[in-house]
Amino acid sequence: MNIQVLKTFLLVVETGSINQAAKSLYLSQPAITKQIRQLEEEYGALLFDRSDGRLTLTDSGNILYPFAKTMVQDYNLSKEAVAANLEGYEETLNIGASLTIGEYLLPRLLGTFKKQYPDYHLSLVVENTPQILTHLTDDKIDLALVEGLVETSHLSVERLKEDELVLIHSPEHSWSTRENIALEELTHERMIWREPSSGTRAIIENFLTEWGILEKIESYMELGSTQSIKSAVEAGLGVSIVSKLTVAREIEQGIIREVKIRDIELKRNLWIVWATKRFTKKSVRAFMEFIRNQYS
């Protein structure tokens, strides 16, 4: 069986369209349809239901999908394992990171790692936690460093470090003269949030739900990056809770102020996540050892 036919099948399933798969592969629609027909002949079963103008998987197609995904991943892994054994092979470490880690923690770490291992090429993808974990599951990255909730049984997870979350406000806010506030005072403020899929937001909402005040807080604004939240807070548009990693410089410069919540510490874990494989790249083993030494 041609592995490309399986790759095409996966792409059609994941895009939900022969047309979109054809565009992604720079092929014609008839060429994609021909490959799907070949696969159906191979298995002796229809894989897609083409009725009502929609393309959906049949029961046989649903059965085949996880097997096809595993076969393609194993094929890619086998190529990488053989290539790694050849002289002159240049290995690339593909890392995915959630936004806080990718923008504020990893740049310095990757610089130090590169000095110790100059022969490894580094590639970094920075997106929110759910997207990064999807890339890891799809074998598009080797390692994930994420914040927030990691709920998956098929990936290995290890605590990277602890991260403090802080309540921030503008220097002109009435809290500027105070060392701490009562938790209930948050209900009188305009809260500026990250997008709903943000790992940081999920953690904060869990905290506030446990304390029984989430529903009482005005959700004033949702912004897609920590930088935009910092700018909004600095401009006095509201308050927010963010990782201290992201505002350390602004707090030091007095651009943004931090205020403690009385008798409460907001902390969360940052995680390193990987998929267990029969073959593990040397660069992955090296980076895992490096990162553990950094935070041991």
From TrEMBL:
Query: Could you tell me which SUPFAM superfamilies the record lists for this protein?
Result: Periplasmic binding protein-like II, Winged helix' DNA-binding domain
What the entry lists under PANTHER family is as follows: HTH-TYPE TRANSCRIPTIONAL REGULATOR, HTH-TYPE TRANSCRIPTIONAL REGULATOR CYSL
Keywords annotated in UniProt = DNA-binding, Transcription, Transcription regulation
Family as reported in the entry's similarity comment:
Belongs to the LysR transcriptional regulatory family.
Q: Tell me where in this chain the HTH lysR-type domain is found.
A: 1-58
What are this entry's molecular-function GO terms?
DNA-binding transcription factor activity; transcription cis-regulatory region binding
Q: Which NCBIfam families match?
A: LysR_Sec_metab
Q: Which organism is it from?
A: Radiobacillus deserti
InterPro entries for this protein: LysR-like_Sec_metab, LysR_HTH_N, LysR_subst-bd, WH-like_DNA-bd_sf, WH_DNA-bd_sf
Please state what the protein is called.
LysR family transcriptional regulator
